[in-house]
Amino acid sequence: MERTQKQLFGIVGVPPLAVMEELAANRSDIVDLDEPQGRIDLETASPFLPRVYCGILRTVIANCLAVKPDVIYIDTGAGKCDCAVHTATVLEDILPQTTIIRTKNQDSCDFGIPLCKARMNLVEKMSAITSGVQLIAVEQEIIPCQPTAGFWGVPPRDFSLLSLFPDTTHIYGWARCMENKTPDNTEMECHYNSDIPTVFFAQSFCAKTALARHLAGKHPHGLYLDCDVTAGNSAKSKIQAFLELSGVTI
């Protein structure tokens, strides 16, 4: 059935602020295709992307097949990843009725990182950061806390991975760039706090695993970790043991 209502816009990565401002001005319906949209079978992406693609981009394909947005803005620049370039091509072929708009977020104006430094449940904090992609202004002033642990990396597909961290965890890496709305900010992405135990995370098969492992090796008390679609008991046990041995109180 054809839509008679206003168009549904999908976003992949962090679109330029100008794009989000335009969508907000038009009060567009927006769906974040990086995040699982309900009970969608990830296997529906298998005919279109190989399993060596990360769980996030496979989620994008599965979401698109189920939701079928009218328009998709997908970041194919350095602020996302090279694999997103090819994912955009795949989407054009399998969704001929959807308009695929490639963007490159090269914004350099700092939006701020209050959530990354806030005292807050880490699952709720990361959820606020990912949903904040659709915000075009800072809504409230947040007082930073003194960090006792660090999480460096990308928002995991399975947020249960974050439930093991204390509320005083600061966020670093691409997730920090995400809140700042400057996803192509290498200097910010490489920053970490050497004074606190830090987990360096990336999705399995993501190119960022190279940077995560490299920085974890430089950090005086870092743990490199990657996992694919879901956070299994092994990954969670590693985090729990690392934090406990570091003297971090949950």
Topology:
Blueprint: E1 8-12, H1 17-25, E2 29-32, H2 55-67, E3 71-75, H3 82-94, E4 99-103, H4 122-131, E5 149-153, E6 169-172, H5 174-180, H6 186-190, E7 198-203, H7 208-218, E8 222-227, H8 233-245
Parallel strand pairs: 1-2, 1-3, 3-4, 5-6, 5-7, 7-8
Task: Outline the structure in words.
The protein is of the alpha/beta class and 250 residues long. The protein has two domains: 8-103, Rossmann fold (3-Layer(aba) Sandwich); 115-245, no CATH class. 32% of the residues lie in helices and 16% in strands. It has helices spanning 17-25, 55-67, 82-94, 122-131, 174-180, 186-190, 208-218, 233-245, and strands spanning 8-12, 29-32, 71-75, 99-103, 149-153, 169-172, 198-203, 222-227. Helix 3 links the parallel strand 3 (71-75) and strand 4. The termini are far apart.
How much of the sequence is in beta strands?
15-25%
Mass-distribution shape: globular
Number of helical stretches of at least 4 residues = 8
The tally of beta strands, per DSSP, is 8
User: What spatial order of strands do you see in the largest sheet?
Assistant: 2-1-3-4
Low-confidence stretches: none
Instruction: Characterize the biggest β-sheet.
Output: 4 strands, parallel
Q: Helical amount among residues, as a percent range?
A: 25-40%
Query: Mean of the pLDDT scores?
Result: 94
**N- and C-termini, Cα separation:** 50 Å
Tally of discrete structural domains: 2
Radius of gyration: 18 Å
Order of helices and strands: EHEHEHEHEEHHEHEH
Q: Kindly name the structural category.
A: alpha/beta
